[in-house]
TrEMBL record:
Protein name: Brp/Blh family beta-carotene 15,15'-monooxygenase
Keyword Transport: no
InterPro entries: EpsG-like (IPR049458)
Listed GO MF terms: monooxygenase activity
Source species: Bifidobacterium criceti
Alphabetized Pfam families for the sequence: EpsG
Stretches that traverse the bilayer: 104-122, 134-165, 171-199, 211-230, 250-272, 330-348
């Protein structure tokens, strides 16, 4: 029950923060409340909630606390358990300097990740209703960040990267992707997105933008083939091989296709309909939304390999609401239908299918 209460509270606070009748101080207050309320879930959860906690999350923080006087020894222990990203290691090390409580660490990690996503969404508020974008994050992306930890930070930074690129702040965007790679090596795949948005924003001719979108879609469609080929040739290091070696059965694509096809079709429709227009933002976001579906074959390699597609998936946060906005004169109805879709998606993926193993959500006994 607390999972639904805190998610609902966060959505409500986000709605209030974007209200035009409030001054900036009240808006900032409700923004903080929105981020904190959902981050509480990160902190109070039982340590069995989320697959990555048991794999490395708990151990990395324990080692940070045990070796708080020697960063060198700490990194040696991190590498021994397969955690080599310096960004995530440093974050653990800093928190361990003043707290031995692992729940405090997860709470602060949640604050960090959720704040970045919040800022990223808020930067797009002139293009789409911010509250709708935040609900998109809570229903689709947040469960993944609750589970993935270090990649959750990388996803947040890649989301922020896009908002900078669309505002022509290319250096800030580059710093975001470099920081993301320091938290999770797989963020290197996001350079494909960086180059795509950068090129779209650099050209003004509509036909050139269309060509860039087409090339981007083709490149993205070949990513699963390239990843599989690299692994078959032994060209992936052990660090990357963990994403393509999985003893579990391949995931059925049917449910994933059903969830994405409506937005893929809408993206294709508007890209074709507005092919003569030089709209950099629409073509960037709709192109990424379309490309994300083309990465679904990664699920047939392994469930872990599909994590690469999450770097595309974070652009659903502005992309899906922007598609709803296209229904001129009917946008309010479209948003209502869309919110119903989001709740259905959350129920099917997180509650019924148990994606990320975060439901049922159990509160840790030592936080009560």
């Amino acid at each position: 029950m607390i999972l639904f209460v805190m998610l609902s509270a966060s959505a409500l606070f986000a709605f209030l923060s974007s209200s035009h009748v409030l001054n900036r101080y009240y808006s900032a207050f409700f923004s903080i409340c929105s981020v904190v309320s959902v981050s509480v879930l990160n902190g109070i959860r039982d340590l069995s909630i989320g697959t990555d906690l048991g794999v490395y999350g708990n151990n990395v923080f324990i080692q940070a606390r045990a070796n708080m006087l020697s960063f060198h020894d700490y990194m040696f222990e991190c590498k021994a358990i397969g955690m080599t990203e310096y960004g995530y290691a440093i974050f653990n090390y800093i928190i361990a300097q003043f707290s031995s409580n692992i729940h405090i660490f997860y709470f602060l990690l949640g604050i960090f990740v959720n704040s970045i996503f919040y800022i990223s969404g808020f930067r797009n508020r002139e293009r789409i209703p911010f509250s709708i974008a935040w609900i998109t994050y809570l229903m689709i992306i947040y469960p993944a960040t609750l589970n993935l930890l270090r990649q959750g930070v990388a996803l947040a930074l890649i989301s922020l990267m896009g908002s900078f690129l669309l505002s022509n702040k290319n250096i800030s965007a580059l710093l975001c992707i470099l920081a993301a790679c320091s938290f999770h090596n797989s963020a290197v795949f996001a350079f494909i997105i960086y180059i795509f948005i950068y090129l779209i924003c650099r050209v003004n001719a509509a036909h050139r933008q269309n060509m860039i979108v087409l090339v981007f879609l083709c490149v993205s469609a070949f990513v699963p083939t390239v990843v599989s080929w690299l692994d078959s040739k032994g060209l992936l290091s052990d660090k990357y091989s963990q994403y393509v070696v999985d003893t579990s059965l391949s995931i059925s694509l049917i449910s994933s296709l059903i969830a994405r096809i409506p937005f893929f079709v809408l993206s294709a429709y508007y890209l074709i309909k507005e092919r003569s227009d030089s709209n950099k933002i629409d073509k960037s976001l709709f192109g990424i939304v379309g490309a994300e579906l083309l990465l679904l074959p990664l699920q047939n390699i392994s469930s872990s390999a599909f994590r690469v597609a999450l770097y595309y998936g974070v652009y659903k946060i502005p992309g899906y609401p922007l598609l709803c906005k296209k229904f001129r004169g009917m946008s309010k109805i479209a948003y209502i239908i869309y919110v119903i879709y989001l709740m259905s998606y959350f129920y099917i993926q997180t509650i019924r299918n148990g994606s990320g193993e975060i439901y049922p959500f159990v509160v840790a006994a030592d936080t009560l």
